[in-house]
Design goal:
Order of helices and strands: EHEHHEHHEHEH
Shape: globular
Helix content: 40-55%
Largest sheet: 3 strands, parallel
Low-confidence stretches: none
Number of helices: 7
Number of strands: 5
Radius of gyration: 15 Å
Amino acid sequence: MITGGPGMGKTSLIDALTALDYTCVEESGRQLIKEQLAAAGAALPWKDQALFAEAMFAAAVKDFSQHQTNDQPVIFDRGIIDVIGYLTLCGLLVPDEMKQAAKELRYNQQVFITPPWEEIYRNDAERKQTFAEAVATYEVMKKVYAEFGYSLMELPKCTVAQRIDFMERMF
């Protein structure tokens, strides 16, 4: 699992790991935003946060289930806990169903977290948060992952190749 605030290099890592033939699962939030924008849908973080979280949760559970029996390591760009973190960040109620899924559908104990890194942070069509909001997201993810019993390992601020080397030493 790779988590952290938005714009801290998770997607670049996933892309590079995929190119190295690792099985990776892309973040569902970005794809969901693209789909909702194309369809003029409401499940967008700036329109309906709860609906957006429900859609991300459904995607995270589906992604987890699809890779549960994989014999090789699977690297996720965010997951079920991130949805709980998102709801917490938004000050919204976390449904019991999500809490139960987070307890039952367990990822690897060791989770990588990307720290706030203003030099690489960029906004785009799907990422509208300020850097301060990205830092707040990082802090909430640290807290929520720890609450669900995961060990967090902060990735160093370095090149993608160096981050991958760091991760591989921890596998």
